[in-house]
Amino acid sequence: MASKKVVKLINDQIAMEADSSAIYLAMATWAVKNGYKGTAAFMFKQAEEEREHMYKFIHFLGEIGEQAIISKVTEPKADYRGLLEVMQTTLGHEKKVTASIHNIMSVARKEDDYPVTSFLKWFIDEQVEEEATANELIDIVKMAGKVSEYLADKEIGAKAAKKD
Ligand code: FEO
To answer: How many CB atoms neighbour CB 108 within 10 A?
Structure first.
């Protein structure tokens, strides 16, 4: 049987996963509005994944005889300066999720709560993947920025050729 403290932490995590889904959904709608079709598709999928994470925690609490609490979702940020901010926000958020899951794991371990520690293992691995993906997205956006600089540089070179 999980302690009240662990159940509370898992319920907080359920709220965090719901917030995650809303954050990515808002990023998707921003991307649609600004013509970033690929990012929109990615973020819609990410939002779905976060709901799956939320359900995993909800079902787990049910399985161990506890009640999951469904709370209010925090209103997500709706506007971004560009793709880099979207991806950096994603990484920052995933780092917070990782820290939160590690904290639950740490408390469950101290309490010798084997079902919770075993259940959380999937999330520990998932967060390694989530952070790696967010880092990759940042790299992609930065690389793309360099491509446009390269093209601009070529254009400037062409202008230089026409000078005098
Ligand atoms: Fe459910 Fe992206 O962490």
So the answer is: 23
**Separation of alpha carbons 55 and 10, rounded Å:** 12
Mean pLDDT in consecutive groups of 10 residues from the start of the chain, 164 residues: 97 98 98 96 97 98 98 97 97 98 98 98 98 96 92 91 86
CA distance 127 to 129: 5
Among 3.40.50.1240, 1.20.1250.20, 1.20.1260.10, 1.20.140.10, what is the CATH number of 4-162? 1.20.1260.10
What is the 14 CA–ligand 1 centroid distance (Å)?
10
Ligand 1: distance of its center to the CA of 58 in Å?
14
| Pairwise CA distance, residues 129 & 123, whole Å | 10
Domain boundaries, the chain: 4-162
Q: Smallest Cα–Cα separation from 116: which of 21, 9, 14?
A: 9
Q: How far is the CA of 152 from the centre of ligand 1 (A)?
A: 38
Q: Which atom of ligand 1 is nearest to the CA of 94?
A: 2
